[in-house]
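#help-structures

NK: newbie question. if I give both the sequence and a SMILES, will the prediction place the ligand too? trying with magnesium ion
OV: yes, paste both and it writes out the complex. here, I ran yours:
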Amino acid sequence: MIDLKNVVKIHQTGDEELIALKNISLHINEGEFTAIMGPSGSGKSTMMNILGLLDRFDEGDYILNGKNVTHLTSNESAHVRNKNLGFVFQSFNLMPRMTLLENVALPMVYAGVPAKERKERALEALTQVGLENRIKHRPNAISGGQKQRVAIARAIVNKPAVLMADEPTGNLDSKTTLEIMSIFQRLNREGTTVVMVTHEPDVAKYTKRIVSFKDGEIQDDQIIEKQKII
Ligand SMILES: Nc1ncnc2c1ncn2[C@@H]1O[C@H](COP(=O)(O)OP(=O)(O)OP(=O)(O)O)[C@@H](O)[C@H]1O
Ligand SMILES: [Mg+2]
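OV: that's the protein plus ligand as structure tokens.
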């Protein structure tokens, strides 16, 4: 499903170069639920942005779903992303002037889905995260946990094979964090491959595999024998 081969990423600021990913090879199979862990600055977000086709890299290859996506144009990347991937951010990234239904329908506008179907599928996705009674609200009228559920609905509305999330529970309290992890576990049970960054070991134990980063390298990669189920 996901195959990174010898990926190197250099961040350039002014005339300073920082090697954020040194030589990353990572294979993730369909159906896995993987946590990416590691200290601040170890390269987790850099790698997630590459996995999500949101950023380019300097060396190596990325094979997604059997297709080499290393050298795509930004238009091609957007197309592959829209068809295969859903992305959830720590800061929700919702459109404040749009209703929840409109927020969730937005990726389908880009995908060219007709208006009626957009509405139906957005409602279905919001129902999956338990927000079918809030569809006319705007983001400022709901809680942080609800916002993240909207962001998840938006990420899954095109039925992506892989759901990616960078610290999705970073701004949430522990009860709301469990709600989000429960949704991820359900989506994973139903067949979605999930990759998420988290700082918290307590959150990672709800996944099935922990990949630990240090200084731009993978330091450890372990399968969790007993995934904690919510
Ligand atoms: N856009 C950028 N320009 C320059 N340097 C960057 C950029 N993004 C990240 N870096 C640097 O690359 C390294 C890896 O950063 P990254 O954001 O991937 O770490 P992280 O593991 O996600 O950290 P955190 O846990 O704080 O989110 C850091 O040294 C960071 O300062
Ligand atoms: Mg980060």
